[in-house]
Amino acid sequence: MPKRLVKASLLTSLAFLLTSCTFYRLLKDSYTHLAPESFQQTAKPVYVGTVYSAQTMHDALFNDFLLIGESSFTAKHGRASKYINYGKEVGADVVIVSFQNMQKVKEHFSITERLLWDASLTTFHTKTIINFDQDVLFLKRIGNVRAPWEYAKEEFELDKKNDTDPYLGNWMGYKTCKIEIHSAGDEYLGFINEANCKEKPRINRMLAWKNGDIKLRINKQSKQGFYLNQSKIPILIKSQINKFGHLDLLDKNTDQVVASLQKS
After folding, report:
1. What's the rounded Cα separation, in Å, for the pair 123 and 111?
2. Are the C-beta atoms of residues 210 and 197 closer than 8 Å to each other?
3. What is the tens place of the pLDDT at every residue in 135-145?
4. Residue 154 gets which letter from DSSP?
5. 3-class secondary-structure state, position 129
6. Of the candidates 223, 147, 158, 212, the residue with the CA atom closest to the CA atom of residue 180
7. Within a 10 A sphere around the Cβ of 257, how many other Cβ atoms?
8. How many other CB atoms are found less than 10 A from the CB of residue 84?
9. How far, in Å, are 31, 38, 120 from residue 4 at the CA level?
10. Domain of life of the organism in this record (predicted)?
11. Which of 36, 171, 225, 251 supports an S-S bond with 218, CB 3.0-4.6 Å?
12. What pLDDT band is residue 22 in, cutting at 50, 70 and 90?
């Protein structure tokens, strides 16, 4: 069979041209600086990707952080490192990225295969690209402000054990370290309860899990709060004890099960 040299040429829509731009250019061109001053480059900000609006996540869990800037654009879901790198450049400590309003865009392109003896074969194709409206907030830590993942069991005054409350006790789930849930005032607090926790962040790798780290916080009355996933990215949740006695943590926005825990 003769060797083929393949040369692809793309005919794209305006939407695809936007997605094919570098994320750096998208972030930079749409960036608005909101703080009264500029900040030096940070080491590595924490990435918080969410299906909620970025403003909702900010108001719920990061309201004490200074909002130093924001970007907005429509594009494909980018790698976390792209947002982190630009956040580092503008001096952010936390970067919140929301992915909403999914849009399917058709890309039309052709592929020309050059054969021997100057012959060629051209075929035409269509590819679907998935874009999202993306809002990116760049946050700065001011003073002693703390992020949701920066708490540990030893800092809290916990209530005495109550064997009648189904939320309390030791829990285990799929691909997560053991969690011990305590009562503290009007909250349920869940902490890692495993000496050698093997749960490793895939994105925010500098945030290693340790025994006693906060894993979830739930308001007793509303049964709502947040849960930290493997990469310590907070997910806004509502909770319930199901008919099997398992603790289901549901995404507050989609009602999908984020984690289902059972007593250990």
Report:
1. 5
2. yes
3. 999 999 999 99
4. G
5. strand
6. 212
7. 13
8. 20
9. 45, 54, 9
10. Eukaryota
11. 225
12. confident
